[in-house]
């Protein structure tokens, strides 16, 4: 009896591993194909798609880089960095005000800020275009900075607020006894204590800003302000017949976030889990 | 009087967030409702009040219904794969003994969710490409060349192809979250069930499933809501074609406004997205209010 269960268990284990590894292959192989195609020639891409490149040259990667990807990357980095800083600070201030300062209408304020979580960006699209045209910010870096910040403040505040609620009250009392003002208490005591959740929110915001497409596509058209997702589409329409260059561009766009995910996995998982689990 | 002033001063902490959200999230939303009652040419600037005409037009527009149907299909398939499929997968991964392998597998499955939908969409655009694409070559390699298609070029296969890519892109994300939920279940419950002679399948149905119910609920809502906001992948892969067969509400909104210059109509479509997503959010809040699984 025991040996029968042991045998069945072993068979089940083999099937389990076979399934999990096949699934991993389904995920990894297309990505590998993308990276490899960046090394191939056009002829090789149209030949046997499963073959390896005949020689490894970074030509296409270099071409992609010079034909705009370096500009898109710069814009993406700029928009990502500035909107991350803006979002995290604005959200941390708000979370501090909502949890540790006795402000009037605090319930209502909490509801208004977190309620933004429920609203889809596409719903606001038409009015936002009109608004940004009127402000003269259409097709500018500022449009993306403002929109990425405004639409992510609710989610980021939600995460930081939940974390701050769990910090002990005694911390504030101790700060007050030491004669710290609110401002000092926030910067010197509360914010450093929130480091884990701040890290999570920073990483999640980077993933968002790096990959965002709807706003980036609608609000930018010129070469100087296009981020990578939109830039890749331009690359595709301009050099769509030079497939290796397009594949190389895609690989360049994907690489930083995959690296970021593996480096900050723990914090990203924590942030995501708190985001939907609380 | 002084204390009131001091309390009001505390508002300074939340003012930046309130202003940003108020001006750029809530105000446009309200404005959108007004716009949906206009016939509005954004380039000439002409605006004319037409009442509910845009909404009547919506009801009579076959492409609108097709878009809505595609969103519903998206939601249904995503629920199957990204909620229930991901839950089963997360439980299966827990069956792997080495924790290091568990982490590695989950990380690998998550990679497509880290890269942008634009990259994923373009990648699958090429995979579905009839001549150089992996899919047709793979079918030929296993002797099923007869099943080859111009996947994104034919009305019957284009939408399923896009939805399939979306499952590839998103399943690792929900698997990761279910894994967190499963790990929060105290080990003792599983040990007790194992001692009672309960097999792994029954353990899944009688222990795991009931105890991750809350996460399942939230993930379902998030998934459905996401399915009604689909835009990026459709735009990248087909722009709604061929012959509008892959339009979803988001792309039809974009096309109506920004390509066909009918912004009042686009605003009416936006209102539909608003009503649907708000309805889901309210349902989610209502579900969350009910008794939670507590330890």
What does this structure look like?
Chain B: The chain crosses the membrane at residues 9-29, 72-92, 104-128, 158-182, 211-231, 263-287. Chain A has helices at residues 2-37, 42-46, 59-100, 106-115, 125-134, 141-165, 170-177, 182-193, 195-211, 214-219, 228-239, 243-277. Chain A folds into two domains: 2-37; 67-277, MetI-like (MetI-like fold, Orthogonal Bundle). The longest helix of chain A is centred in the first third of the chain and has 42 residues, at 59-100. Chain A is built from twelve helices and no strands. In chain A, helix 3 runs antiparallel to helix 11, helix 3 runs parallel beside helix 12 and helix 7 crosses helix 8. Chain A is an all-alpha fold and 278 residues long. By secondary structure, chain B is mainly alpha-helical. Chain B has one domain (21-114, 166-289): MetI-like (MetI-like fold, Orthogonal Bundle), CATH 1.10.3720.10. Chain B has a two-stranded antiparallel ribbon with strand order 1-2. In chain B, 45% of the residues are buried. At the A-B interface, helix 1, helix 3, helix 4, helix 5 and helix 6 of A face helix 1, helix 2, helix 4, helix 5 and helix 6 of B.
What does the secondary structure layout of this molecule look like, with pairings?
The complex is a heterodimer of chains A (278) and B (295).
Chain A (H helix, E strand, L loop, with lengths): L1 H36 L4 H5 L12 H42 L5 H10 L9 H10 L6 H25 L4 H8 L4 H12 L1 H17 L2 H6 L8 H12 L3 H35 L1
Helix pairs in contact in A: 1-12, 3-6, 3-9, 3-11, 3-12, 6-9, 7-8, 9-12, 11-12
Chain B lengths: L1 H8 L5 H21 L2 E3 L6 E3 L3 H8 L1 H33 L4 H16 L2 H12 L5 H8 L13 H29 L3 H9 L4 H12 L1 H15 L4 H6 L11 H11 L3 H27 L6
Antiparallel strand pairs in B: 1-2
């Amino acid at each position: 009896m025991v040996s029968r269960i042991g045998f069945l268990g072993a068979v089940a284990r083999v099937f389990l591993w076979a399934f999990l590894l096949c699934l991993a292959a389904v995920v990894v192989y297309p990505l590998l194909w993308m990276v490899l195609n960046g090394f191939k020639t056009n002829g090789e891409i149209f030949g046997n798609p499963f073959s390896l490149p005949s020689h490894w040259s970074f030509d296409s990667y270099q071409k992609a880089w010079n034909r705009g990807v370096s500009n898109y990357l710069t814009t993406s980095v700029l928009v990502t960095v500035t909107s991350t800083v803006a979002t995290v600070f604005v959200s941390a201030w708000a979370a501090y005000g909502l949890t540790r300062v006795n402000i009037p209408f605090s319930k209502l304020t909490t509801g208004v800020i977190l309620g933004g979580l429920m609203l889809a960006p596409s719903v606001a699209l038409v009015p936002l275009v009109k608004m940004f045209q009127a402000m003269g910010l259409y097709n500018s870096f500022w449009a993306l900075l403002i929109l990425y910040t405004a639409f992510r403040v609710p989610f980021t505040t939600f995460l930081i607020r939940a974390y701050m609620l769990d910090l002990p009250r005694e911390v504030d009392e101790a700060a007050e006894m030491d004669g710290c003002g609110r401002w000092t208490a926030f910067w010197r005591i509360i914010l450093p204590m929130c480091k884990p959740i701040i890290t999570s929110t920073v990483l999640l915001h980077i993933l968002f800003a790096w990959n965002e497409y709807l706003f980036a596509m609608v609000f930018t058209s010129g070469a100087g302000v296009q981020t990578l997702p939109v830039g890749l589409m331009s690359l595709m329409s301009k050099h769509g017949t030079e497939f290796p260059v397009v594949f190389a561009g895609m690989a360049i766009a994907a690489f930083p976030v995959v690296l970021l995910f593996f480096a900050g996995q723990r914090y990203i998982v924590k942030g995501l889990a708190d985001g939907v689990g609380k | 009087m002084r204390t009131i002033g001091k309390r009001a001063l505390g508002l300074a902490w939340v003012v930046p967030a309130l202003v940003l959200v108020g001006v750029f999230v809530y105000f446009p939303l309200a404005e959108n409702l007004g716009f949906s009652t206009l016939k509005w040419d954004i380039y000439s600037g002409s605006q004319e009040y037409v009442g509910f005409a845009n909404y009547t037009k919506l009801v009579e527009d076959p492409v609108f219904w097709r878009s809505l149907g595609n969103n519903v299909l998206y939601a249904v398939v995503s629920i199957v794969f990204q909620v229930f499929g991901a839950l089963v997968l997360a439980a299966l991964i827990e069956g792997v003994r080495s924790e290091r392998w568990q982490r590695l597998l989950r990380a690998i499955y998550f990679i497509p969710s880290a890269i942008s939908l634009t990259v994923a969409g373009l990648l699958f655009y090429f995979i579905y490409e009839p001549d150089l694409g992996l899919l047709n070559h793979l079918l030929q390699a296993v002797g099923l060349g007869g099943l080859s298609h111009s996947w994104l070029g034919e009305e019957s296969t284009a939408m399923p192809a896009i939805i399939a890519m979306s499952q590839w892109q998103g399943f690792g994300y929900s698997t990761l979250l279910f894994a967190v939920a499963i790990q929060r279940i105290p080990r003792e419950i599983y040990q007790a069930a194992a001692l009672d002679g309960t097999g792994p399948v029954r353990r899944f149905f009688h222990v795991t499933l009931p105890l991750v119910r809350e996460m399942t609920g939230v993930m379902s809502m998030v998934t459905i809501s996401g399915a009604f906001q689909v835009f990026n992948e459709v735009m990248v892969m087909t722009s709604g074609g061929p012959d509008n067969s892959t339009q979803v509400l988001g792309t039809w909104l974009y096309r109506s406004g920004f390509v066909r210059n009918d912004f009042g109509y686009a605003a009416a479509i936006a209102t539909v997205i608003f009503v649907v997503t708000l309805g889901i959010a309210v349902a989610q809040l209502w579900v969350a209010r009910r008794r939670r699984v507590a330890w």
